[in-house]
């Protein structure tokens, strides 16, 4: 016997909390076939980091390597989206919500904001690495930091 109601009323995280952006988009599923939203969302749901499961993981596609269940549910959600079956979509959202609560419950706490900030810092670092000229004075890439211009 399942006691899901007890669990959900006490401590379950809702789909709205797990993936707020997609939750809003999928409230009236499916969107009109030839609408801009349908085209844009269809593109986003096809990628691991921007799909429903990706949003839950802080817009990261790392789960593809790390959690086979998330990966599987991700595929199911994509396929529900393109078959435009509201029933299938809702069933998979429910499955995903249960899986998230079972396996990733604690991720949510440090999910969105903290992870996003960390990722942005990493991105920023990568950018700095790319922009840095190999050697100062070398005439390959004459990029002068703004701060230098302002102080000299
Ligand atoms: Zn998972």
Question: Care to describe what's here?
Answer:
The protein is mainly α. The chain has a domain at 11-114. Helix content is 67%, strand content 0%. It has helices at 4-10, 15-18, 20-25, 36-45, 52-56, 63-66, 68-83, 86-104, 107-131, 146-151. Helix 7 (68-83) packs antiparallel against helix 8. The longest helix is centred in the last third of the chain and has 25 residues, at 107-131. Mean pLDDT is 80; it is low at 1-9. It binds zinc ion. Zinc ion (ZN) binds at residues 67, 69-70, 99, 103-104. Residues 113-132 are annotated as: Disordered. Residues 114-126 have a biased composition (Basic residues).
Sequence of secondary-structure elements: HHHHHHHHHH
Low-confidence stretches: 1-9
Q: What summary fits the major beta sheet?
A: none
Tally of helical runs:
10
Tell me the span between the first and last alpha carbons. 75 Å
| Bound chemical compounds | zinc ion
The helix-and-strand class reads mainly alpha
User: What is the global morphology?
Assistant: globular
Strand percentage lies at under 5%
- The radius of gyration over CA amounts to 21 Å
Number of strands: 0
Give the averaged pLDDT, no decimals: 80
Helix content: 55-70%
Biased composition (Basic residues): 114-126
Region (Disordered): 113-132
């Amino acid at each position: 016997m399942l006691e899901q109601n007890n669990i959900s009323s006490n401590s379950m995280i809702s789909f709205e909390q797990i993936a707020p952006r997609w939750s809003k988009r999928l409230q009236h599923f499916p969107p009109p076939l030839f609408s801009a939203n349908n085209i844009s969302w269809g593109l986003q749901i096809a990628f691991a980091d921007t799909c429903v499961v990706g949003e839950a993981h802080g817009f990261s596609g790392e789960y593809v390597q790390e959690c086979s269940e998330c990966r599987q549910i991700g595929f199911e959600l994509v396929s529900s989206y393109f078959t435009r079956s509201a029933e299938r979509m809702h069933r998979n959202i429910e499955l995903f919500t249960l899986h998230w609560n079972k396996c990733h419950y604690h991720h949510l706490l440090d999910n969105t904001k903290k992870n996003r900030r960390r990722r942005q810092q990493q991105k920023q670092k990568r950018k700095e690495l790319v922009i840095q000229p190999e050697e100062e004075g070398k005439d390959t890439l004459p990029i002068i930091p703004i701060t230098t211009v302002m102080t000299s």
